[in-house]
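Protein Entry — a single chain follows
Fields — amino acid sequence, structure tokens
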Amino acid sequence: MKDSVTGTYEKINDANTELVIMVTNQFLGDQHAPTIRAMDYAYTLAENLQKQVMILNDASFHFYPCPWLAQNIEPSYVEEYNNIGKLRYKDYEFPFLQIAEYMPDLDAINKTLQQIYRLRPGLVYNVGAPCLIADLCSMFTKTVSFPCSTDIPTSMCEYLLLGRMLEENDSEQIARLEPYQKIIETVVNYQLANNSLEYRRSEFGIGDDSFVIAVVGNRLETEISEEFIASMEQILNQQNVHFLLIGLINDSDRIKNRITKSEKLHFAGKLEEAGQAIKLCNVYCNPKRSGGGRSSFEALAHGVPVVTLKFGDVYHTCGKEFAVDAYENFSERIHRYVTEPAYYESAKEKALERAAVLSDLPGTQRKILEQIL
């Protein structure tokens, strides 16, 4: 790709270290989690770290549908953002640019690179890897990439942010990095949204005195496996508890038919402001999956302990304190929560402590910049 870049770019020796270009590959508004993350990070850099921040959507996901792709999809793109030069978020107004052309457009990429180069930023900060523009900016300034997952980002940026600790199974990917690339271990930050809804247990057919286990997700139809159903059956047979399943499940009979005490299953369906329903529960129980980081954070922030396998975003969000080795251990952990009040209260306190770390966006970003600038 570098061979297609026109113009000469030399390393900037007098970069404006107060200027950060925040680059994302898709910008869809306040209902899109990666967009919200980019805006929260931009706001934190401006408000708490006093940086000048410009936001750029390089529109990497705005491409022609192609029959040769593994999935012939047309990602969402909001054309209205092409016509604005400033973007308001909370009490800040950020300079904003969105590339209008279908990607990859070499002329548009070169033009954008030249604009960034003339601004001489101290840092180009990509949120939502991969990002071609941010990669190319490594030719002349410091670059950092943060994916919307707990994976090592697929990126050619100089600094790669990893929202967890490195593990042995990362060694193969580490070996493929360029000599100039460095990994920074950090956390994935979350913020509780301002909510307007309030749910009651009675809306889901659950009594106020019941011990309730939440299972939450946007893809529960596939995430609730036969193994997880067997674990639910074991839990229900050994403890006097209820399950509240929050998320769209079209075939609820697949689950009910395998549960002896199916009257203790409560299907809430897809809920707006699902975190407000999670706070009604006593425990958040996580099936084996890659995602779920956001909802598990909401559980922690409301003092709801989590039970998860040592896998995926929920494990990396919550930490080993809330992890077990196998589904067979779920029932044992929940039994302790039900029968040992002191143990349960301790777990609630640890949940709140972990949530405080995860929600400390200023502290996280300050530590990151200290290692880069």
About this structure: The first helix runs from residue 33 to 47. The two ends are 27 Å apart (CA to CA). The domain at 2-186 is CATH 3.40.50 (Rossmann fold).
